[in-house]
Specification:
single chain, alpha+beta, globular
């Protein structure tokens, strides 16, 4: 099975603006969810979904239902990674845990509903509609995406490019 670490997307100005708007809104949504996760000590995806989904959708209607779920996932993932370390120095004696803040440069998480790979093309969700990119992947990689369930894809901006 091939492993893809990153693919650089060639974006035009309109696509860049739409991806940046999505990244900004996704970050705001994560920062909206994060205090709830911390206060409730909840980094279980389903439980946090029940705690936050309705208010998240009201607060960020343009983000869309699936991206709201992906933001919940991103917050759960961040807290799980942070607290897997036993006796972490950032957990106080009284068990108080810090609230994770997501930077505007934090990656956006996509899943099989918000990202599609087809021969020669990548399609991504944006708040203004799907964005389509020409993507030259060899046949083996294309088949890999077609056969296996997409688990996690992150979009991040690096040196002015989206990878």
């Amino acid at each position: 099975m091939p492993k893809i670490s990153s693919v650089t997307l060639s974006v035009n100005e309109l696509q860049r603006q739409r991806l940046l708007a999505l990244q900004t809104e996704f970050c705001k949504a994560c920062n909206f969810i994060s205090p709830v996760a911390s206060q409730n000590r909840c980094w279980n995806r389903v439980a946090l979904h029940h705690l936050t989904y309705r208010s998240l959708r009201e607060q960020f209607p343009d983000l869309g239902a699936q991206m709201a779920c992906n933001a919940i996932y991103a917050v759960c993932r961040a807290y799980r990674l942070l607290y897997q370390i036993s006796n972490a120095p950032w957990v106080g004696q009284d068990g108080v845990r810090p609230i994770i803040r997501f930077a505007e440069s934090a990656p956006v998480f996509f899943d099989r509903h918000t990202l599609t790979v087809k021969p020669g093309q990548l399609s991504l969700f944006s708040m203004e509609g799907r964005l389509r990119f020409q993507l030259a992947l060899d046949e083996q990689v294309t088949q890999y995406f077609a056969q296996l369930r997409l688990r996690e894809v992150k979009k991040k901006k690096k040196n002015g490019q989206y990878v």
